[in-house]
Structure formats: structure tokens, C-alpha cells
Specification:
Order of helices and strands: EHEEEHEEEHEE
Distance between the termini: 25 Å
Structural class: alpha+beta
Helix content: 25-40%
């Protein structure tokens, strides 16, 4: 699917608006975007940062596979996915997904499927650094 998919793994900074510019929209009637942020509180406790550890060799491959599957399954035109690794502070973007499609229904479905699939399949592990301690979160993503 080649140029219809853009995948990035960012260790320093993730800019959702710059990523949006990489989306191919020439034959599209809808763009749906999702950006996940680090919350300032979890369970009523202040969060200092989230640390993302990844199997760095595999992460881009998994993200690209998910993007290509969404094109096949939902018939969308183009997908851009980026995910942070390392330390991500409160209100900073963790993940950004942009989907272009001829119709909004498919764009929403693909974007929702992508974030759910990423959270269950991407080789990422998350540690919360909070006011009350440090906690590894269960599972992937």
C-alpha cells in the first residue's frame, strides 16, 4: 500500500498537525483524527510522566501492518500513525492517528479500530510515574 501509509516512532516530540500534512487526501471526503494525551491525573493522583518502552525493531512493522489492514478492511484511502517512546509529560501527545476516506463512516470505524488494535497488539509497555509511586501498567499499549 506503499505511500498510502505513514508510520513514525518518535522519541522526543510528536506533532499531530505536522503528521496530518502527510495524509493523502486527494480522493477523500473525510478525515478523522485521534490524539491520545498523557493525563495529568490517574485515579485522583497527580501524574508526572508516562514512560513508554518498546520493542523498537518491531513497533514500526506492527503499526504499518495495522495501517495496511485498516485500508483493506475499511476501504480508507490513507493512514498516518505515530507513537511516542520514552518519557511523555502531562498533556503531551502519546499517539496520533489520521485516517482519510471517501466517506466519514469508514474513516471513524478505521480510526477507532486502529487505536483499539494498537493498544492490544503494539509491542509497547507503559510505566506511570505518579505522586504516589511508579507503576507498570498491565498488558501492551
Amino acid at each position: 500500500m506503499g505511500d498510502r501509509v505513514t508510520v513514525q516512532v518518535e522519541s522526543e516530540n510528536l506533532e499531530p498537525n505536522q503528521l496530518l500534512e502527510k495524509l493523502i487526501i486527494s480522493d477523500s471526503g473525510a478525515v478523522v483524527s485521534f490524539t491520545g494525551l498523557t493525563r495529568q491525573q490517574e485515579e485522583g493522583v497527580r501524574v508526572f510522566s508516562l514512560d513508554f518502552d518498546a520493542w523498537e525493531e518491531q513497533l514500526p512493522k506492527v503499526l504499518e501492518d495495522l495501517a495496511n489492514r485498516s485500508i483493506t478492511e475499511f476501504g480508507v484511502e490513507s493512514v498516518v500513525i505515530a507513537h511516542r517512546i520514552g518519557s511523555v509529560g502531562p498533556t503531551e501527545p502519546i499517539v496520533s492517528i489520521h485516517v482519510a476516506s471517501k466517506h466519514r463512516k469508514e474513516a471513524f470505524q478505521a480510526c477507532s479500530w486502529l487505536i483499539d488494535s494498537l493498544k492490544s497488539q503494539a509491542p509497547l509497555w507503559k510505566k506511570e510515574n505518579r505522586e504516589d509511586g511508579t507503576f507498570w501498567k498491565e498488558g501492551l499499549g
